[in-house]
Specification:
The chain is of the alpha+beta class. The protein contains ten helices and 47 strands. Helix 6 packs across helix 7. It starts with a helix and ends in a 7-residue tail after the last helix.
Length: about 800
């Protein structure tokens, strides 16, 4: 009788350990901040005389995420609306005139769920989608602030931009649901046979994509929901004129002349291993009648692209924004394989309407093509190439018939030498080009410095390549440029903030800043938080840093339980690895499942503690474990030396690759009392064709894959670890099974572990209920295992 009773009790305990729980809420002081008002963000008109201030909805609900969703070909489509599943939308809008700052509230109908608004080229009208219960609608508004629905059609937002303005500023190119479409295909009651895949002597990397096609019924669903009837819609009358025949389109872009369209049309056969962006496609030029006047390429399924390589044939195809109808695209000269030794890897080609001549070569590049930006005048463009082994990026000033001129050459991770991005100008056609001011252009940069970011605007002289600084954020605040309001860069719309002042917007001209908004502090309870940038070194000399956050009412000299939160990155050399990115002058505001909520529970937080992995591009991960452990120890030692951290009460956490780091630190060190790992991957054999910057396959670097996998060392994880994962995680590499198997491995080896699967959530968590519960889990876990942990035995 006793053995039977023990068995029943054991079974009940097992059931309890695996039961579905109700959603929990974190303490009230956290809820108060979580529910604080959201600060509006501006969408500036191309005319630069007005801005729409839009207020995003803070959180979805679990009921939103639980709505029926179709997961096919890498897409997640709402079965009810034929749009994105659980889309972000805006609940409030107002029209702000510039530079006066006078605002008019835009009255939206009750229940309207507005997508991101888009201005027409002239800046007189704007449009947005509304996601209703039965589908997506198209709405328009003007400078008066009045909005209305146009047309009776339903918009197809399943794949690609739902709409875009045509160059005339009156018409819109809209993806609509075909009028004659019937009901969605029903799954067969029984399968007609097995699902078969085969491959013969065709080696290629298979990435860990999710939501893929699995059977013929999935193919039918993909056809049903993704098929679009393109239409030209009059924004005044709502009249819709069909453009061509229905199809599945990856891209559709009007030329500046408004008479031609660049179309990438998906065709069969589909793949069960790749998302729809890899499917075969025809890249064509259409006239307004829908007639195909030129075929740029018929591209096959992109299933044979080498690791870090590119497809063969035209890619990155687009219109030259400053010519009526000129195609521009890149092509590989090395077969798309980065291991092939050639003098030039890529070239950029152009072809003018009527597209019946041979393409002209615009530039030939030694390394892989990395982007092109045409100037609005002069025929010039910035063209960049990228060398993967050194992580090196170069930018050239190029023009047809002239030798390219090198402008910048730097390590991509060298933030201190980042020159900024060219300021773009939206042309009357709606296309964007680099804004030219006399003999120069403007550059908008983050301004990374050893003391933190100081955003700037520079003027680059194209003849001398020398820069003049027109604006730089002050050292004791953080001010960034939202829009350049004049061609000379002397009038700016900026967003300014400081640790004590919430973000607001202002017009800055002639050295004077005139506020145009006065948003109040949404969470005054956070103003007692203190933060500072802390720099130190690892024993091997690599410079490191973290932002130290101290809780409200912190008393100097008090040693606190501490949370180290980090995300490892790979570098070629120590000098770039130690660079400071971010600013200690930002206004502290907590949203979502932020780890900074630990501050309201009396913890110190070492935020963004740098965990650089430094070494040769090909073998840097061979010493991953040693380097992250050394970095973690250096951070704790520094915070202990400062007198703020109790080294016997430190927890570690991270999200995604940070979760992977967390499990490794618990497996390979005794620095921490507990860990929180969210949405991670723990067994690298499940990502055998590479991960992060690792480009060797499992079969090429078997020992490294095994050593880096904390799953291999689950028996060494004795400190408690909390694993959290979205059940619907669709991020490549972080299948939910990663956390499930890691839980089983730790549990089976006698470790202390808790696994929380969040229904309907993906890689990041969206629903208010989920976020509240995650915060409850995180706070409870560290309160129990870090803050209130008993003294450690020697």
């Amino acid at each position: 009788m006793l053995p039977r009773l023990i068995g029943i009790l054991a079974l009940s305990l097992c059931i309890c350990a695996h039961a579905q729980e109700t959603y929990k809420k974190p303490p009230q002081e956290i809820l108060d901040v979580l529910n604080a008002p959201v600060t509006p963000v501006p969408v500036v008109s191309p005319a630069r005389d007005a801005a729409l201030m839009v207020t995003p909805r803070a959180y979805s609900s679990i009921a939103d995420l639980a709505q029926p969703v179709v997961r096919v070909a890498g897409l997640r489509i709402s079965a009810a609306t034929n749009g994105p599943h659980a889309p972000m939308y805006f609940s409030e809008m107002s029209m702000v005139r510039l530079p006066s700052g006078s605002a008019t509230k835009i009255v939206l109908p009750p229940g309207l769920k507005a997508g991101a608004p888009q201005w027409n080229p002239g800046g007189k009208r704007f449009a947005f989608t509304n996601t209703s219960a039965s589908g997506m609608e198209l709405w328009v508004g003007g400078l008066t602030g009045a909005v209305r629905r146009i047309g009776t059609f339903k918009v197809n937002g399943a794949a690609g931009a739902a709409f875009q303005w045509m160059p005339d500023g009156k018409t819109m190119l809209v993806r609509t649901i075909p009028a004659a479409r019937g009901k969605a295909p029903q799954a067969p009651a029984a399968p007609s046979g097995p699902n078969v895949q085969e491959s013969y002597a065709k080696g290629s990397a298979v990435w860990t994509f999710q939501d893929l096609l699995k059977n013929p019924h999935d193919e039918a669903l993909f056809d049903y929901y993704a098929t679009t009837q393109l239409a030209l819609v009059d924004s005044v009358t709502g009249a819709a004129t069909p453009l061509g025949r229905p199809g599945i389109f990856q891209t559709v872009t009007p030329a500046p002349d408004g008479r031609h369209f660049l179309v990438a049309r998906v065709r069969r056969p589909y793949s069960y291993l790749y998302t729809y962006t890899f499917f075969p496609k025809d890249v064509e030029v259409w006239e307004r009648s829908g007639k195909v006047v030129h075929t740029l390429a018929k591209l096959p399924l992109q299933d044979a692209v080498p690791v870090d390589g590119v497809p063969i044939g035209p890619r990155s195809y687009a219109w030259n924004p400053v010519e009526p109808a000129t195609l521009v695209w890149a092509e590989a000269l090395d077969g798309g394989d980065p291991k092939t030794q050639v003098p030039h890897r890529d070239r950029v080609l152009t072809l003018k309407a009527p597209f019946n001549s041979e393409p002209r070569e615009f530039i030939r590049l030694e390394q892989r093509y990395a982007g092109l930006e045409f100037f609005e005048e002069g025929g010039y463009a910035f063209v960049s190439d990228y060398e993967r082994e050194r992580r090196w990026i170069r930018t050239y000033l190029a023009k047809t018939g002239e030798a390219p001129k090198l402008v910048w050459s730097r390590d991509r991770r060298d933030a201190y030498k980042d020159p900024g991005e060219p300021v773009m100008h939206r042309l009357p056609t709606g296309h964007s080009a680099v804004m030219v001011a006399g003999a120069g252009i403007l550059l908008d940069g983050a301004g990374a410095t050893p003391e933190g970011d100081r955003p700037f605007i520079d003027r680059l002289d194209l003849a001398t390549l020398k820069t003049e600084r027109l604006f730089e954020s002050a050292a004791d605040e953080y001010e960034t440029v939202t829009a350049v309001l004049d061609r000379e860069g002397r009038s700016l719309l900026t967003r300014f903030e400081s640790p004590s002042a919430p973000p607001n917007y202002a017009i800055r001209a002639a050295g004077v800043r005139k506020p145009v908004t006065a948003f109040p502090d949404p969470a005054p309870s956070l103003r007692g938080i203190r933060k500072q940038l802390v720099k130190y070194k690892r024993p091997d000399g690599v410079p490191l840093s973290f932002t130290l956050y101290l809780p409200p009412n912190y008393k100097e000299g008090t040693r606190l339980p501490t949370v180290v939160w980090a995300y490892p990155l790979e570098y070629n050399d120590p000098s770039t690895a130690g660079q400071v990115v971010g600013s200690p002058q930002r206004f502290t505001m907590l949203r979502g499942m932020s780890h900074l909520f630990y501050l309201l529970r009396g913890y110190a937080v070492l935020d963004s503690a740098t965990m650089p992995v430094v070494g040769d591009f090909k073998t840097v991960n061979d010493t991953y474990i040693d380097q992250v452990v050394a970095s973690a120890k250096a951070a704790i030692d520094k915070a202990t030396e400062m007198g703020v951290t109790d080294p016997n009460r430190v927890g570690v956490g991270g999200h995604s690759y940070g979760a992977f780091m967390t499990a490794n630190l618990l497996a390979h060190s005794d620095l921490f009392r507990a860990g929180v790992a969210r949405s991670g991957a723990y067994n690298r054999t499940l990502t055998p064709f590479g991960f992060q910057s690792e480009r060797r396959t499992f079969w090429e670097a078997r020992d490294t894959y095994m050593k880096m996998s904390p799953f291999s060392y689950a028996d060494k994880i004795k400190e408690p670890i909390l694993l959290i994962h979205g059940e619907a995680d669709n991020n490549p590499g972080t299948f939910p099974v990663q956390s499930d198997r890691m839980y089983q491995a730790i549990r089976g080896n006698g470790g202390s572990v808790r696994l929380v699967f969040l229904p309907h959530e993906s890689h990041g968590y969206m629903a208010r209920e989920s976020i509240e519960h995650v915060l409850w889990e995180m706070m409870s876990w560290f309160d129990r295992h870090v803050k209130d942990a008993p003294p450690r035995a020697d």
